[in-house]
TrEMBL record, chains A, B:
Lineage start: Bacteria, Bacillati, Actinomycetota, Actinomycetes, Micrococcales
Keywords: ATP-binding, Cytoplasm, Ligase, Nucleotide-binding, Purine biosynthesis
Any Pfam family matching the protein: PurS
Catalytic activity entry: N(2)-formyl-N(1)-(5-phospho-beta-D-ribosyl)glycinamide + L-glutamine + ATP + H2O = 2-formamido-N(1)-(5-O-phospho-beta-D-ribosyl)acetamidine + L-glutamate + ADP + phosphate + H(+)
Alphabetized PANTHER family for the sequence: PHOSPHORIBOSYLFORMYLGLYCINAMIDINE SYNTHASE SUBUNIT PURS
Protein name: Phosphoribosylformylglycinamidine synthase subunit PurS
Primary location: cytoplasm
Family: Belongs to the PurS family.
Amino acid sequence: MGRVVVEVMPKPEILDPQGKAVVGALPRLGFTQFTGVRQGKRFELEVDGEVTPEILEQARKAAEEVLSNPIIEDIVAVTDASADAGTAPVAQRAGLA
Amino acid sequence: MGRVVVEVMPKPEILDPQGKAVVGALPRLGFTQFTGVRQGKRFELEVDGEVTPEILEQARKAAEEVLSNPIIEDIVAVTDASADAGTAPVAQRAGLA
């Protein structure tokens, strides 16, 4: 089973209220090192077979047309994450299942 | 300027309505290759200096305590992304600014 990961972030000039809320909360909770936080989205797209260059191209197109709003967001990365995935779901990979 | 990226995904056993909506929309829009979609979050934490092992450890702690809900979410990755970042904002890195 293949997996493509798509990462989307708000454009730098766009206000990011969720990130602002987090950066305001961190120092109150003892995390004083972080000067800025931006919050974006991470999608995992599963495919039945291998992630071919065609699939990756389709994922890139889906990222532009469906998974992001190009007015306010940037696509940061579209990557074949099948190697990370193996056949195990995310939680098992992270040893947390 | 350093940057730490934190990636958070809903646990596999947790219903993910946003992912479900996307996987339902994709075939209608011509993307028939994708059998499953999960939607999670991606945070960029900025620090003034370099990303030291201590900073990375603090980011890991912040990921557990502030950026994710351990009941329903897994932390997939906490990585030093300073090398990707340089001094340029995300959009410039992606060549989209």
